[in-house]
Amino acid sequence: MTSNYLLPFQQRLLEQVETALDEIADGGNSQGILLIGASGSGKTHGLDVLAEGYPPTLENNQRITPCCRVAVTAQADAVATAASVLHQLGKPLQVSTRPNLKLLEPDMHRALRAHQVRILVFEEFHNALLASTPQLRGQIARFLKNLWNLHPEGSPLGWATPEPGRGDQRLVVIVSGTDELLKVFEKDAELGSRFGCVVMAEQVAFFPPVAFENFRNVYGSIAGRFGLSKRLSPEDDSTVARCMLASGPHLRKLEKLLQRMSTLASRLDGTKTDLELLAAAFDAVGGATGPSINPFKLTEAEVTAQVAKAIPRQRR
Prior knowledge:
This protein is an alpha/beta fold. It contains 13 helices and seven strands. It has two domains: 8-200, Rossmann fold (3-Layer(aba) Sandwich); 209-315, no CATH class. It has helices spanning 8-25, 43-52, 78-88, 101-114, 126-131, 134-146, 180-187, 189-194, 209-225, 237-247, 251-268, 274-285, 300-315, and strands at 31-36, 57-59, 62-64, 67-71, 119-123, 172-177, 197-200. It has a five-stranded parallel β-sheet, with helices on both faces. The protein has a two-stranded antiparallel ribbon with strand order 2-3. A hairpin with a 2-residue loop joins β2 (57-59) and β3. The protein is elongated, with a radius of gyration of 23 Å. The two termini are 27 Å apart.
């Protein structure tokens, strides 16, 4: 999901990364940021905006990748994660057998230095940490710790302090995932100290009012991106509330809903009202992931009743 409006936590993420990069430039150590939130809260969008601010470039035939993003799967361990980083940097493994982490990790560090990576992002990292065994979780934790000190080859691993002229490289490492990640980092004091900055992705909702206002702003921004600004006003409480009911509230679902409405509007050539278009869009993309009742076919009184039911759940 991309839109012009930034949710408050997304703005905080960008500010924290800027601050961390400034401190690294002044000789500081690597810094870690935990981005925590439920699915659909806008974590990926925040990372999209971040990556747009640090685009790849070409320098003397070497691709420079200031921001490297890796999606972590439930099957990922330290070996698979290192291989994913290399793949993102254009260096896929050419071996058919499973590589040795002791050999693979230095290759990844060399690639990070060559590409001058400044921000390394591991998305949905709870998949690896929560689905693996305690032994594998320990391996992944060590893998993250080792990223802290990207030394030149042959330098002692004990050198934790950056030294000018030695060729050290420091990173901003962002780990995103659900709130279950916090428990893992809290149990490992050494790892947790490296990720002292936590950015919480607040879920949009009917309650409190500021959460609904955030949803309204995102709604208006996405509507504008799909050419629906003249049809869908963020000030139309009834339609905004129906879209909140339809999306769950899940911002990816909202994006799919409005995108489909835009497609139908261009095809049907003005033969449907806005609510009819939204109802048809919901029938097409809502499916099993949305509420069982099409909120765009409800009366105003029924919408009010549905909102009244949703607010107590969201308060909890």
